[in-house]
Amino acid sequence: MRALDAAIAILTLLCTTRVHIDARTVTFWGRTYDLNTTSIRLDVKDPQDGVIPTEIGLLEDLKDFRHYATIPTEIGKLKKLQKLELIQVSGEIPTEVGLLENLKYFRLHNTKITGTIPTQIGHLDQLERLIVTKNLNILGPIPTEVGRLAELRVLSLSENIKMNGVIPTEIGQLSAMEYLTLSNNPLSKSIPTEIGYLTNLIMILFRHISDNKNLSSTIPTEIGNLALLEYLELGFNQLEGSIPSSIFDLKNLVHLELQSNKFRSISNLNIQELKALVYLDLSFNNLSESVLSEIIHLTTLQILCFLSRNLDSNMLPGPIPTEIASLTNLEILFLGSNQFTGQIPIQLGNISNLEYL
């Protein structure tokens, strides 16, 4: 009798989840998959009933999985899974995700996921890319356990509007990190000094928009340790004080955005050392000194922005130096609403690549 009851229970499960299993295959979403299947990448238009069936755990050889549905706890059985991409899914991130011991790529984008990023994420010691972007309902802080991900090269946690708290100091343990983006989250306090340990970083993108979603404090001087850094964007925050001189030690820097902060000065102005710089935006700060006399040595510049919006932001004095015409690679030059005196130098007409002034 017990065997009959068990058989009935199994049949009921298979009928309600629209799943069929035989010795070598499993069928769900109207498709049949061999139990040795290594990749499932479903498009949003594919037939599906809004959930990932628990039987997904039978595909033990699955290495690459993309789907648009609720995540079952059985996903933790996919021990060989290397790539997991979930878009427009709902529910919570199950703690069993931490069992995916071979996972190298994990992406949650534009989902309806609720709750927090589970601390078990720190068990994914093979993870190289963690991308959690544009999720409206993910809550809470960045888990400190992220600091255990020794192989992590890409960490993108941008545009999660309910994620809050601080940037954990444990982030400084991610010595393999190359790309770090935390933009448009309601993070608070400061950039940790431990960021100076991430000597393989190529990109830092901490761009925030509205006033209640900003960092504060200063740029840590340790940022000058990041010798490989090419792209640094810290615009639209409440960073204040001086722009540290150590930033000018970043000889490989190509793109620098510090606009819309509260900087009042530049320490030991030595900006001409940024010999690879192509893009520079210092607009809408509280800078008053004439920095253009240094900027004119940046002959690689293609875009230069030094705008002012009112009496509380940049009000550069004196004439526009004629030497700015030596920036022959300039394509965009924005210097509006400062306190410049005299006329626009006619020498600017010699910048043949200039498109916007």
Helices, by number, come to 2
Strand content: 15-25%
Strands, total number? 25
Unreliable residue stretches: 6-19
Sheet with the most strands, sense and barrel status:
13 strands, parallel
Radius of gyration computed on alpha carbons: 26 Å
End-to-end distance: 86 Å
- Outline type: elongated
Give the proportion of residues in helices.
Answer: under 10%
Biggest sheet, spatial arrangement of strands: 4-5-6-8-10-12-14-16-17-19-21-22-24
SSE sequence, one letter per element = HEEEEEEEEEEEEEEEEEEEEEHEEEE
Compute the average pLDDT. Answer: 84
Alpha-beta classification: mainly beta
SSE topology sketch:
Elements: H1 2-16, E1 20-21, E2 25-28, E3 31-34, E4 39-41, E5 64-67, E6 83-87, E7 90-92, E8 105-109, E9 112-116, E10 129-133, E11 138-139, E12 154-156, E13 165-166, E14 179-181, E15 187-188, E16 203-205, E17 231-233, E18 240-243, E19 255-257, E20 262-266, E21 279-281, H2 292-295, E22 303-305, E23 317-319, E24 332-334, E25 339-341
Parallel strand pairs: 4-5, 5-6, 6-8, 7-9, 8-10, 9-11, 10-12, 12-14, 13-15, 14-16, 16-17, 17-19, 18-20, 19-21, 21-22, 22-24, 23-25
Antiparallel strand pairs: 1-2, 2-3
In short:
The chain has 357 residues and is mainly β.
What would you note in describing this structure?
The protein is mainly beta and 357 residues long. Helices cover 5% and strands 24% of the residues. The strands form 6 sheets. A 13-stranded parallel β-sheet has the order 4-5-6-8-10-12-14-16-17-19-21-22-24, with no helix packed on it. About 4% of the residues have low confidence.
